[in-house]
Amino acid sequence: MDSDVVSPAEPFSLAIEAAVERWGGLIRRAALRHGLAGADIEEVVQDIRIRLWRALQRPSEKNPADSASYVYRAAMSAALDLLRRRRSGPLGKPVALEVVSETLQARGSEPADDEAAQVAALGRALDGLLTERRIAVRLHLEGKSRGEMAALTGWSEAKTRNLLYRGLADLKGILSGGGAS
Q1: Backbone angles phi, psi at 52, to 5 degrees
Q2: b/e per residue, 91-102, with b = 16+ CB within 10 A?
Q3: What is the C-alpha to C-alpha distance for residues 90 and 137, in angstroms, rounded to an integer?
Q4: How far apart are CA 35 and CA 7, in angstroms?
Q5: Above 60 in pLDDT, residue 98?
Q6: Cα separation, 26 vs 39, whole angstroms
Q7: Residue 174 predicted with pLDDT over 80
């Protein structure tokens, strides 16, 4: 293979590495501010590379790699996401509705009527939500952060937040008998 051939991804890689080099101190300070050190800081730096890669894929007039404020906000968010993942751990992580329902059915003994009725009501209420709101609420129930939800769905952070809040409000309305808005 000819060494003068540039892959389509190479300009992105070069821009990302230049940004990490330029804003490395800023990224590390954001991680340190949350009490992270060593390998955790490197995990935040890697997360920034991924976020920059995704941001560069979107058509925009402004290059996010040139923005100190974008990189700092992304670093703060990455550090918080890392702490949340650690805190939730295997025991504290919310589970999907289907897992709750299957667990209740697989117990062998009869689940409490209230518990089974609540799971069934939640499932029916979720089915009554508009499609995008239902997706946002289900991802939320699975323990995904808004950033993760946006990345998975391709929605903007603002759209994700809006769909989640409206979906949760609709869910509350349906479960309390008021219906969705």
Answers
A1: -65, -40
A2: eeeeeebeebbe
A3: 21
A4: 38
A5: no
A6: 17
A7: yes
Distance of CA 102 to the CA centre of its chain: 25
Confidence (pLDDT) at 66: 78
Confidence label for 52 from pLDDT (cuts 50, 70 and 90): confident
CA dist 110 and 96 (Å) reads 21
Tokens of 79: 């550090």
Q: How far apart are CA 113 and CA 66, in angstroms?
A: 57
Helix (H), strand (E) at residue 41: helix 39-57
- Separation between Cα atoms, residue 171 and residue 129, nearest integer Å: 7
DSSP state of 111: P
At 18, the amino acid letter reads A
The C-alpha atoms of residue 80 and residue 67 are separated, in whole angstroms, by 20
Burial status of residue 22 (CB atoms within 10 A of its CB: 0-12, 13-18, 19 or more)? middle
Q: Which long-range contacts (CB under 8 A, 24 or more apart) does 158-163 make?
A: 160/136, 163/132, 163/133, 163/135, 163/136
**Other beta carbons less than 10 A from residue 153's beta carbon:** 16
Which of 77-81, 83-87, 106-110, 160-164 has the largest mean confidence?
Answer: 160-164
pLDDT at 107: 45
Tokens representing residue 118 in the block: 């609540």
Q: How does the average pLDDT of the chain come out, rounded?
A: 77
125 vs 137: CA distance, rounded Å: 11
